[in-house]
Write a structure and sequence with these properties.
It is a single chain. The chain is mainly alpha-helical. About 75% of the residues lie in helices and about 0% in strands. Helix 4 packs antiparallel against helix 5, helix 10 runs parallel beside helix 12 and helix 12 runs antiparallel to helix 13. The two termini are about 35 Å apart. The N terminus is likely disordered.
Length: about 260
């Protein structure tokens, strides 16, 4: 756990409120502290669902680190419903960012876009706005609206320019660059697609703290190279992505890479 990480100390009998605060801090800082994850894993599902920040962190983890989308959907849906019922606007926005990603993975693209526009009208930090725009990108890509998707992706990258936290700015850029690569390909800009994926992979590879983002980045880079006709490089890159997916126990990503 980084020295700057400001969360309550976890013990075997950590009270739910302390776990909620620790989960919220981790979720909003986009970190996955081992101590917090161990406590989440020890909770029975009803206990986890009763703690929306904990459920949201666990859902994001299952989606982003292990591509266990069905389990992630249950947790993220429950967290969003809990925040809405409690009138917690901040929690709702953070949960909506994850919920939009799950709408993409569940093929529910139109529902995702319908929820988005009122949220984007609200004031929020630039990183969170970029997260919502990333969700818009995914849902638009799912519907085949490539022009709208690329516009949302580029708006997300623009929003990140205004983010004051270098860590959030960097991981936001990695996420958006690796995904917008597909949009550029469908736009007919295959060379730009490869360049965006290469930039995302290089950023993720440059620091140990973003090792968890490498499986997705190298998968997207392999696809970009394949679409561009760089078949030998694509094969090598996708095999690397497959090995990384095995290392991180990515369920669906491993299958896609294979």
């Amino acid at each position: 756990t980084p020295a700057w990480y400001n969360a309550p100390t976890m013990t075997h009998h950590t009270p739910p409120n302390d776990l909620s605060r620790a989960a919220r801090a981790a979720l909003q800082q986009r970190r996955y502290p081992d101590e917090v994850l161990a406590h989440l894993d020890a909770l029975a599902e009803p206990e986890l669902l009763a703690l929306p920040w904990a459920a949201l962190l666990q859902g994001r983890r299952l989606c982003r680190l292990h591509s266990r989308f069905a389990e992630a959907t249950i947790l993220i849906d429950a967290a969003l419903a809990h925040f809405r019922a409690a009138g917690d606007g901040e929690g709702e926005l953070w949960a909506l960012a994850e919920w939009l990603v799950m709408r993409y993975h569940n093929g529910d693209f139109t529902a995702g876009l319908e929820e988005l526009f009122d949220a984007l009208a609200q004031p929020m930090r630039p990183y969170l706005r970029a997260e919502l725009l990333f969700g818009q990108f995914l849902c638009a890509i799912g519907l085949g609206n490539v022009r709208d998707a690329v516009a949302a992706g580029e708006a997300a990258l623009d929003a990140l320019e205004g983010e004051s936290d270098p860590w959030l700015q960097r991981i936001g850029r990695i996420q958006m660059q690796r995904n917008i690569a597909a949009g550029y390909h469908y736009y007919g800009e295959s060379r730009r697609s490869v360049a965006a994926a290469e930039q995302a992979a290089a950023l993720a590879h440059s620091h140990a703290d973003t090792a968890d983002m490498q499986p997705w980045c190298f998968y997207e880079l392999g696809l970009a190279r394949w679409r561009y006709g760089q078949l030998a490089a694509a094969t090598e890159t996708l095999d690397h992505a497959r090995r990384l997916a095995e290392q991180w126990q990515h369920r669906e990503l491993w299958r896609w890479a294979v």
